[in-house]
Write a structure and sequence with these properties.
heterodimer, A: 197 residues, 8 helices, elongated, B: 159 residues
């Protein structure tokens, strides 16, 4: 953690709104990304990310400064998204409905942008069938390079439970990938046959 | 031979899954982090303010309700002072008795007050009375202005 972040945290714990807004500025992307990957659309992700920061603001005086702030924040975000999954049946994702989010890289060309959009759609389709907790674990592992211990702390699970969840998720994702790829190949083949006839 | 074949199939499946997973991981890592629309922090600050206002309203409502409950409790307690015993016989008799006692009580209080206001000019000099009433008036004006200021501050915060 940077010294300035530590300062903001101290100030925020004393009730300084400006210091907390700086923390929001610094952590909005990882929180939003987690929510987006877990909920599958930009509107719900925005709402969940905002709610995460509101909850963090209310509980900041209880935050243990020795703990990693991002882990604490992502733990709030993942719990909120898991609750959202439980409370309402989320609309199922489809490629046509794909709402393109803002990607990290700026100044990319049209072609690269289209490829990125396609990748985002692929990622959302792949993650769709995982359980909310598995999704959170996968995002923490493969987007933020969190250790098993950190994931366990964020999701209130044991390290072995995290390992087994990730192992199962990897297998499910691989099977899903093979299926989508073979479906794509069949469609391409049909298109090719149609064009040659 | 069959064992060898099935082992081979299992191994093939494992390799396929491993390769597929590697491709998935590549897609994941290449997809990067998605960011919210610009102005996220200002939207958050607005939302925080709304949440605060909602909380304040809830607290005010809770305060009013608790005050009402306490006041109601006091009224019931005071009323019970007028009711010596509740007989199952006549509710009407009970009410008549209660109202009679209340009328007697009000008459007694008004008698005491009128006597007080009639006798006080004789006991206290007029200058003392005038300065006393002026002081009371000033206190009342001060109190009203404080209440108005408080209401204005609350209104501004809600706007």
């Amino acid at each position: 953690m940077h010294s300035s972040e530590l300062e903001w945290l101290n100030q925020a714990q004393k009730g300084d709104d400006l210091a907390f807004s700086r923390l929001v500025e610094a952590y909005q992307r990882p929180v939003y990304n987690l929510c987006y990957r877990m909920l599958g659309n930009a509107g719900d992700a925005e709402d969940a990310a905002q709610e995460t920061f509101i909850r963090a603001y209310k509980a900041i005086h209880r935050y243990d400064i020795s703990r990693k702030f991002s882990t604490w924040l992502l733990s709030i975000a993942s719990n909120y998204c898991i609750d959202q999954h439980r409370r309402r049946k989320l609309p199922t994702f489809s490629y046509d409905e794909f709402e393109s989010p803002i990607i990290e890289d700026k100044g990319i060309g049209m072609e690269a942008r289209m490829m990125q959009d396609e990748r985002q759609a692929q990622v959302s389709v792949l993650l769709e069938n995982l359980s909310p907790k598995d999704k959170a674990a996968v995002v923490m592992r493969y987007w933020y390079d969190y250790s098993y211990d950190e994931i366990a702390a964020a999701l209130s699970l044991s390290v072995s439970a995290v390992k087994s969840r990730l192992h199962r998720a990897r297998k499910e994702l691989a099977v899903e990938w093979i299926e989508t790829q073979s479906e794509g190949m069949v469609i391409e083949r049909k298109n090719y046959e149609r064009s040659t006839v | 031979m069959n064992d060898q074949q099935s082992n081979g199939e299992i191994r093939f499946e494992e390799i396929m899954l491993e390769t597929a997973w590697e491709e998935v991981e590549t897609v994941f890592r290449a997809s990067g982090q998605v960011a919210p629309l610009p102005g996220f922090t200002s939207r958050f600050m607005e939302r925080l303010e709304l949440a605060r206002q909602r909380e304040e309203r809830l607290q005010a409502t809770a305060l009013i309700i608790s005050n009402l409950v306490i006041a109601l409790g006091f009224i019931i307690l005071i009323s019970l002072q007028f009711v010596p015993s509740i007989s199952s016989g006549g509710l009407l008799e009970l009410w008549v008795g209660l109202i009679t006692r209340l009328v007697v009580f009000v008459k007694m209080v008004s008698g005491v007050l009128s006597t007080f206001f009639r006798t006080i000019p004789a006991l206290v000099p007029t200058s003392w009375l005038v300065s006393g009433f002026t002081l009371m008036g000033l206190v009342v004006v001060l109190w009203i202005s404080m209440v108005r200021r408080h209401i204005r501050v609350q209104g501004a915060r809600h706007d």
